[in-house]
Amino acid sequence: MSELKEAEISEEEIQQLYEKLNREAEESGYHLNPDTDQTKFLIRGILINQKRYGYWNCPCRLSSGIKEEDIDIICPCDYRDPDLEEFGACYCSLYVSDEVFEGRKKVRSIPERRGQEKKKEHEKVNLSPGAALGLAYPVYRCKVCGYLTARDQPPGVCPICKAKKDRFERFL
């Protein structure tokens, strides 16, 4: 595929995706980085990756170009919630925590979690109640709306009803 130039992504495309992502983030209990210039720079990268690979690969990570290999880093990536909880922002700082969004906390360097997570996955001995069912991760249930999610930890905010993390219970 030919090398894409930044000029191939219009300001209108960036603005449209910015508005869409911002609306969806807020509706789901997340926030985009309040530094609009930085956020639009990252959105430009997402759009370039969309044109280059056919999917929204994280703009701060190298893609293999093979969707199955990159599935964990398609934006929003699998590492967003753990990064938000631990560091206040995702790896590329497109998404930020309430504290960062409200200016009570500064974004600092976020270590790459991807290689560590893959390593842990291979080393993990699954002792969760779901292990007998062949589940690699524990399942958490939102006590408010019943939403189920399989991951290491429950999300910071339920994507359905916006309940906070403490409203989740271990289900399997």
What does this structure look like?
The chain is mostly helical. Mean pLDDT is 85; it is low at 121-127. It is built from 6 helices and 5 strands. Strand 3 and strand 4 (148-150) form a beta hairpin. It has helices at 11-27, 36-53, 67-70, 80-87, 98-101, 114-123; strands at 31-32, 95-96, 139-142, 148-150, 168-170. The longest helix is centred in the N-terminal third of the chain and has 18 residues, at 36-53. Strands 4-3-5 form a 3-stranded antiparallel sheet, with no helix packed on it. Strands 1-2 form a two-stranded antiparallel ribbon. The chain has 2 domains: 6-116, Ferredoxin Thioredoxin Reductase, CATH 3.90.460; 124-170, Rubrerythrin, domain 2 (Single Sheet), CATH 2.20.28.10. Helices cover 35% and strands 8% of the residues. The radius of gyration is 17 Å and the shape is globular.
Give the secondary structure arrangement, pairings included.
Blueprint lengths: L10 H17 L3 E2 L3 H18 L13 H4 L9 H8 L7 E2 L1 H4 L12 H10 L15 E4 L5 E3 L17 E3 L2
Antiparallel strand pairs: 1-2, 3-4, 3-5
Helix pairs in contact: 1-2
Please write the CATH class name of the largest domain.
Alpha Beta
Radius of gyration: 17 Å
Beta fraction of the residues?
5-15%
**Mean pLDDT over the residues:** 85
Counting structural domains, the number is: 2
Q: What is the fold named in CATH at topology level of the largest domain?
A: Ferredoxin Thioredoxin Reductase
Task: Identify the notable features of this structure and list them briefly.
Ferredoxin Thioredoxin Reductase; Rubrerythrin, domain 2; mainly alpha; 35% helix; 2 domains; 5 strands; two-stranded antiparallel ribbon; 172 residues; 3-stranded antiparallel β-sheet; 6 helices
